[in-house]
Write a structure and sequence with these properties.
Blueprint lengths: L1 H82 L2 H19 L6 H23 L2 E4 L11 E8 L8 E6 L1 E4 L2 E4 L1 E7 L10
Parallel strand pairs: 2-6
Antiparallel strand pairs: 1-4, 3-6, 4-5
Helix pairs in contact: 2-3
C-alpha cells in the first residue's frame, strides 16, 4: 500500500512541477503581453501628444495670421480714408492759386472793386478753412529755413541780412494732406554774398 502511495506521489510530483512550470510560463507570457501592450500604448500616447502639440502650434500660427490680416486691413482702410481726397484736393489747388492771385494783384484802393476784392478774400478764407477740416495744410515758408522735403528751390539770391538757405520769397504755396505732400512750395532761397574779386593784386 505504501508502495502504491509512493508511486502515486512520484507520479503527482512531475505533474505538479509541470503545472507550476506551465503556470510560470503562462504568467511570463501574460507579463510579456502586458509589457508589449504598455509599450504600444505609451508609443500611441506620445504620438497623440505630438499631434496635439502640432495642432496647438497650427492654431497659434493661424490666430497670429488672422490678427496680422485684421491689423493690415484696418491700416489699409485708414489709409484709404485719409488719402481718398488726395486726387480731389490736387484738383482744387489751381482754384486756390487763382483766388490768391486775384487777391494779390487786385487794386485794393479802387473803391469800384473794393467790395469784389473783399468778397474774393472771404471766399478764399472760407475755402482754406474748409479744406483744413479735411486735413489739408498750406505750406507758406516765408523767412523759414529751406526744407527740401516740403520746398522746391526755384532760384537762389544773395542776401547779407538773412542766414544762407532761408526762404526769401514764396512764388507758389505748397500743400500737405494728412502729412503727405501734395505739392511743394516753390521758393527763392538766400545764399551768402560772394566776395568781390580783388583785381588789384
Amino acid at each position: 500500500m505504501s508502495e502504491e502511495l509512493n508511486q502515486e506521489t512520484a507520479q503527482a510530483a512531475p505533474e505538479a512541477t509541470t503545472t507550476e512550470a506551465n503556470a510560470e510560463q503562462t504568467e511570463q507570457v501574460v507579463e510579456n503581453a502586458d509589457a508589449l501592450r504598455i509599450a504600444e500604448l505609451e508609443k500611441a500616447l506620445k504620438k497623440s501628444e505630438a499631434k496635439v502639440d502640432d495642432q496647438k502650434d497650427s492654431v497659434i500660427r493661424a490666430k497670429a495670421d488672422v490678427e496680422n490680416m485684421r491689423r493690415r486691413s484696418a491700416q489699409d482702410v485708414e489709409k484709404a480714408h485719409k488719402f481718398a481726397l488726395e486726387k480731389f484736393a490736387s484738383e482744387l489747388l489751381p482754384v486756390l492759386d487763382n483766388l490768391e492771385r486775384a487777391i494779390q494783384f487786385s487794386d485794393k484802393e479802387n473803391e469800384a472793386v473794393k467790395t469784389v476784392v473783399e468778397g474774393v478774400e472771404l471766399t478764399y478764407q472760407s475755402f482754406i478753412s474748409t479744406v483744413e477740416k479735411f486735413g489739408m495744410e498750406v505750406v507758406d515758408p516765408q523767412n523759414e529755413a529751406f526744407n527740401p522735403e516740403r520746398h522746391q528751390a526755384m532760384s537762389m539770391q544773395e542776401n547779407a541780412e538773412l542766414k544762407p538757405n532761408t526762404v526769401t520769397a514764396v512764388m507758389q504755396k505748397g500743400y500737405v494732406l494728412n502729412g503727405r505732400l501734395l505739392r511743394p512750395a516753390m521758393v527763392m532761397v538766400s545764399k551768402a554774398p560772394s566776395e568781390p574779386l580783388d583785381i588789384t593784386a
